[in-house]
Every structure is written in C-alpha cells, then in structure tokens.
Amino acid sequence: MSALVDAPAAALPAFARTRRLRRSPAIRSFVREHDLQATDFVYPIFVAEGEDIRQEIASMPGQYQLSLDNLRAELDELNELEIPAVLLFGIPAHKDAIGSGAFDDEGIVQRAVRLIKEHSPETLVITDVCACEYTDHGHCGVLIDGEVDNDRTLPLLARTAVSHAAAGADIVAPSDMMDGRVAVLRAALDEAGFTGVPVMSYAAKYASAYYGPFRDAAGSTPSFGDRRSHQMDPANAREAMREIEIDLAEGADLIIVKPALSYLDIVRAAADRFDVPLTAYNVSGEYAMIKAAGQLGWIDERRVTLETLLSMKRAGASRIITYHAKDAARWLRDG
After folding, report:
1. 171-202: per-residue pLDDT in tens?
2. What's the domain count of the chain?
3. What is the pTM of this model?
4. Within a domain: residue 25?
5. Catalytic site residues?
6. CATH code, domain with 220
7. Does some domain include residue 14?
8. Domain encompassing residue 140
C-alpha cells in the first residue's frame, strides 16, 4: 500500500483531471453553469380583508396573511431585496357559491393591485385567477350536481381576469385547470381593451399533496371531494406536454409547472420543447418541509433551500415562484 501511495504521478495511467475546475472558490465560480439571483424570484402574497392583520400561517413559518395596511412595508422589503415580482392571492371576507368576490372590482385582490401600483409601480404584479379562495365550497368553479362545471366556470374566470387587468395587474395567471380557460381569458381581455396584458398559464398543474399548507393559508380546502377531476394525475408526463401545447395555442404567453421539486422532469421536458418563458412553482409543502427540518436542526436550511432552488433553474426554469424568496435573496446578497 505504501509503495502505491509513494508512486510518482508519472507511473499512473492517463486520466481526466476534472477536479482542476473545482480547486478553488474562484475557479468554481468561473465555470459555474447556473446561478441564482433575487431577480429570478416571484414572491407569493396572501392579502386579507380587515385591518392590522399580520397573521402567521402555522404550517408555513415565516409566511403571513396581510391586510392592505401592512402591504406597503412588505413591498418596501421586497424592493430592498431586489425581488421584482409578486403573485397575489386573496382572502375575502365573504364567500358564495360562484366565488363572486373574485371578480368584484372592489375585491381584496383588485384593491391590493391598485395599492401596489401606487406605492411601488416598478413591482411586477401577477394575479392568480381562480375561484377556490372565493367559493363557499372551496372548489375551483361553479358546482352542478356536486361536480365543477367547466363551461359555466369559464365566464366567471374571464370576468376575474378582466377585473384584475382593469385594476392594473401586469400579468394574469389562471390556475383553475378548466379546459379552454386560456382562450376564453385571452378573448375577454382583448375585447375589454387589455391586449397588452399577458396570460401566464398554470399549464401543467398536478393534483398534488404538496399543496396542503397553501390551503391553510388561503382558506381554500374543498368542503368535500378533491380536485383530481381537473388537476393532472401525478403519474402523467406526456399529458403535461399536451396541456402546455394547448394553452400556448390558445394564447398563453408564459407557462407554469406546479409543483416544482417532484416535477423537475416536467420542467426539463417543457424547457426543451417550448421556447417560451417557463416558471416553476416551488409550492407550500416543499417550503414547509425544508422549514420544519431546518427548525429541528436536521438540515442546513440555507444550503438546502439554495440547492433546491438551483435545481429548478438547472432543470430549465427561467423564474421561480417561491415562499423562500426573501430568505434566499438575503443569503445570496450576504454570501
């Protein structure tokens, strides 16, 4: 053994020395293929009716339901961290069978959009277009005989998108997974004069158990049943490509794959196949698992978070919707 250890390098066979490019921090940085920046992130915000509300979400430590009077401070923090975009979810005071609060011009999201554009006009505002937070049954559209009726839901989604655009939203993002929603939204936006407002479709949205904490945050847990009749089966990959292709044909400008971490194969396949901006949604359950393990000291939260987000960039996402955005931006800034 000692003879082998002491053997001169000349006696060894030729081999590739890939470690040369990992030898120092400067070299590793110089050859790095992908990196993370604060400008990659979209930060979700839950806006709630009422005043002086900053209610931490128990299953999502560090995330809050915010009333509008607390929104300005949140925007100032995001601007300081150079996070350029937010995704708005509304928590209304009133819910009904058709989710009418979603398309109320004085609804919580519409007022939040106007406040953001007044206080921080440079912030890119994306609005989630769905009914689940606004219906008293928690489903994503109009119920007929206990099932979500696709075609009766579409006009309500269109009204919501137009209402968001009228309030000043930069991008509308339908997340309902109704067939034909992108075509109907695009037509309604164009007819209302909002031809310049892009549609960012949740084109491949899976029926995932990773959404659990979000439903606590948004108060959108279905009162019965589930959403597997319209959200995608986690077993299917080719179907996701078809869903994306359909949405792009109907007029989607950008696409979202949701969730991200367990669906990096879908992110990669979509990035390879479609030449449009692609966003991965790092969902609430993914966030909660890292937070919980970090709080228990089982993992290095900083390193695991940044590695997880980097995997989404490496898979092909150009942007990432993530609840980690503020923490990640600080870590990236501070080194």
Report:
1. 999 998 899 999 999 999 999 999 999 999 99
2. 1
3. 0.92
4. no
5. 205, 258
6. 3.20.20.70
7. no
8. 37-334
